[in-house]
Amino acid sequence: MELNLAGRTALVCGSTQGIGQACAKQLAEMGAHIVLLARNENALKQEKEELDRINKLNNNYLVADFNDYKEVEQVVKRFVADLNPIHILVNNNGGPPAGLITEANPEAFQSAFTQHLLCNHVLAQSVLEGMIKTDYGRIINIISTSVKQPLPGLGVSNTIRAAVANWSKTLANEVGKYGITVNNVLPGATLTGRLSQIINNKAAKFNKTTQSVEEEMLQEIPLKRFAKPEEIANAVAFLASPAAAYISGINIPVDGGRTASL
Question: Which of 5, 170, 213, 238 is most buried as measured by Cβ atoms within 10 A of its Cβ?
Fold first, then answer.
């Protein structure tokens, strides 16, 4: 099975922590040249140095804030204009704040729509030409299992994630003729800063201990544990590889069996 990514370039978003960071490292271990994209330049520099040690390449980083999709677009277009085609795009960004949908204000939806759907869209548009010319394209979106089963207390996230999933399926249908695949990875509860934030918020809201909230969440997972970021990255890495050339337009839950539907 061909998993080698030598000679390929992967643009990984939100890649200085959590799932994004794990994806960047996994793809680097498979030989890909990595372009990191996030807003914290100091963290980007540190991550680049680590990746340089892993794949023995001179990796790159780009600085942009996902609250401004035009800035994201300009930064990436400037990079690819210098004859730097992107073969693999990993769309990943921190999820919207938790909260009931009945309490969400319109600005929360606008912000999430910009950070997730609009940024994903301009990023895909920016790299498609290079994928077509080099005859290799993989677009992988890190979303959420909420696209299959809305999660309690994540009203804005449930809404925006569903929009991204349908955008992704539409894109897959349109670019399939070029051999470009587009897929979504749906993480379950994963050991990241966002999970800690969700647990702390639930504990405060319902006057519970964080340990009791964790235990309740684990009871919903057949494997009885939270995912490691590396386990989400493994799914992303496979989809990015030549071995996944005939897999496109699908949602892949990586959630320990938590999602109730197939």
Answer: 5
| Tens digits of residue pLDDT in 51-99 | 999 999 999 999 999 999 999 999 999 999 999 999 999 999 988 988 8
Distance, CA of 18 to CA of 29 (rounded, Å): 17
Residue (of 93, 118, 120) closest to 39 by Cα position: 93
Burial class, 25, CB count within 10 angstroms (exposed 0-12 / middle 13-18 / buried 19+): buried
Write down the pTM of the prediction. 0.96
Task: Please check whether residue 157 is in contact with residue 146, taking contact to mean a CB–CB distance below 8 angstroms.
Answer: yes
Q: How far apart are CA 69 and CA 108, in angstroms?
A: 16
Question: Per-residue DSSP letters for 181-221?
Answer: EEEEEEE-SBSSHHHHHHHHHHHHHTT--HHHHHHHHHHT-
What is the CATH architecture assignment of 9-188+228-254? 3-Layer(aba) Sandwich (3.40)
What stretch(es) of the chain map to CATH 3.40.50.720?
9-188+228-254
